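Tokens as discussed.
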């Protein structure tokens, strides 16, 4: 499912009051969006993955991957699976081994790794483990991955993908195919 409404009309990646400004049509669209996610999650009987895809005004040619890890914790590598939206994935493969889990954030099992293999820059990834100081704002993940990812339990993980303006400006079939291939490779390795 996707939402093509402008954020000034509905920002589904926020709490309902902030997302809708209490406008009845926007509230209905917000409820429909969230009900669809709930229905899709309940149809999955095993582990699963939700991707929350956005565009950012960032001029850099990269995709920011949000796992609910604040940039300062990402840069210092002071995070654990228990605070992330892919907690279930970490628990499945790593148990309590936090060093193992970091492979799913910025190592060779991460979505960023597969983006890099397709020639697409991603943060975090093995090539870009840190957000760095040149980034004005890093999107660590919003309402959707916090609510529907596995941080608070369950087997459905969530990753927010913020595609920069530069990447979207060349959003032709070749770029889309690279992104799809990266996602499929990540999913095949970690979820099947």
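Sequence:
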């Amino acid at each position: 499912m996707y939402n093509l409404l402008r954020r000034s009309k509905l920002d589904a990646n926020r709490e309902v009051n902030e997302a809708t400004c209490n406008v009845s049509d926007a509230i209905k669209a917000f409820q429909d969006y969230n009900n669809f996610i709930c229905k899709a999650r309940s149809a999955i009987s095993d582990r699963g993955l939700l991707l929350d895809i956005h565009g950012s005004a960032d001029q850099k040619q990269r995709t920011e991957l949000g796992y609910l890890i604040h940039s300062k914790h990402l840069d210092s590598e002071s995070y654990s699976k228990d605070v992330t939206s892919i907690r279930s994935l970490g628990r499945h493969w790593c148990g309590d081994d936090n060093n193992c889990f970091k492979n799913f954030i910025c190592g060779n099992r991460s979505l960023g790794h597969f983006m890099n293999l397709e020639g697409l820059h991603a943060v975090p990834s093995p090539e870009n483990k840190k957000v760095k100081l040149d980034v004005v704002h890093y999107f660590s993940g919003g309402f959707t991955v916090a609510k529907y990812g596995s941080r608070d339990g369950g087997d459905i993980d969530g990753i927010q993908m913020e595609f920069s303006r530069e990447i979207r400006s060349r959003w032709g079939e070749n770029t889309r195919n690279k992104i799809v291939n990266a996602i499929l490779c990540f999913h095949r390795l970690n979820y099947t």
